[in-house]
Design brief:
Largest sheet: 5 strands, antiparallel
Number of helices: 6
Shape: globular
Structural class: alpha+beta
Strand content: 35-45%
Number of strands: 7
Order of helices and strands: EEHHEHEEHEHEH
Oligomer: single chain
Distance between the termini: 41 Å
Length: about 130
């Protein structure tokens, strides 16, 4: 077996039943070297109306997300790019502070301004 991680989540569907979700997270080496997986590997974009919202989010989510992240200024918005697995808890926290949007790194790199290239959440917690 490879060095993949398994994430198990339990979600209730009614008062007497539930669903068990098991997700395999490939190890970083296989994701980095496989262009097919790298392009489609759990890319998520969240939009914030202010810089302060992002600072507050980074404090709240500290230690919960272990994937890659970068931070952009796009038009009048701030956009957080996350590449990695988002648990239900992380998604709930993200949606409390921002809004999930459909965009791409190509659009952000061409029309936005890259503010933090790597580990955006960690960088925010280090300085704010």
């Amino acid at each position: 077996m490879d060095n993949s991680k398994l994430i198990v989540e339990v979600a209730p569907v009614s008062h007497d039943s539930f669903v068990i979700l098991v997700t395999r997270i490939p190890d970083k080496k296989s994701v980095l070297y496989s262009s097919k997986h790298r392009k489609n590997y759990l890319n998520n974009f969240y939009q914030f109306s202010s810089f302060d919202e992002f600072v507050d989010l980074s404090k709240e989510i500290e230690g919960l997300f272990s994937g890659e992240s970068s931070f952009y200024k796009y038009q009048d918005w701030y956009v957080l790019y996350l590449n990695g697995y988002l648990t239900k808890k992380i998604q709930a926290i993200l949606e409390e502070y921002g809004t999930r949007i459909n965009t791409s790194l190509g659009i952000l790199n061409e029309h936005g301004k890259l503010l933090i290239n790597k580990n955006a959440l960690d960088v925010m917690n280090q300085y704010f």
